[in-house]
Amino acid sequence: MGSTGQQEKLAKVYDAEIIPIFSSKFGKLLLRLLQIPEKGMLLDVGCGTGYPALEILRKHDTSLRIIAIDKSSAMMDIARWTHAAPMTP
What is the pTM of this model? Predict the structure, then answer.
């Protein structure tokens, strides 16, 4: 398996196995303590597969702008795919 294939596999495992564990404890605490202005910008450096940026986007109106970046294109692909999916509050 090439490097790209390995990155895609790791991104899927990260999203399916790591994020649910992280978000159930630390992510919820972070979201509870994070103070985000109604109209503002959020920069998520090393966004991985999009958590918590996508969760923040789900909970705020369209006046919030989020810029998310990651070194891994495979992680960004999952974040883009998740963002394109219908969001439910």
Answer: 0.74
